[in-house]
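pinned: reference chain
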Amino acid sequence: MVNSKQKGNSGERAIVKILNEFYNTNEFKRVPMSGAFSTIHKNNLTESEAHVFQGDIITPDFFEWVIEVKNVKDVNLYKIFTDCGHTKWDEQLEKERENIKNKKGVILVFKQNNREWLCKVFKKDFTIEVVPRMEFVDSYILLFSDLLNFYLNNK
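pinned: its structure tokens
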């Protein structure tokens, strides 16, 4: 049986590696204990510390979004499509968006076993046109690699 915490941690490490290689840096890092850290310690964090511990990945100043990572056994894309792009993580993403400091928005990066990394971005967080795999009223779902290539090429 797979430990879901270990699976989540391995997903976060994979995204950190992808981002560091893509941007030729080592500034992307996992948030210690991921989302649990800021939940447990949020009252003891200064505003600048809280800024660093947004999402699952610590991002450099040049990177404009908070990143949430989900590495799961199954992703029901049919359900996402028939629910107008909504995922089971949307409530968490909206809470994250409400607390964002110094970033444009949230990117949900998710992966099903043995598949490529996908991502969900909200249209209100992007002022540029993204070429999506799926487009919905309020969001896009696309390959994470497409988002990186688009973002880097249109910065």
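why pinned: Residues 21 and 144 are 14 Å apart (CA to CA). The beta strands are 29-30, 57-58, 65-72, 105-112, 118-122, 134-135, 139-143.
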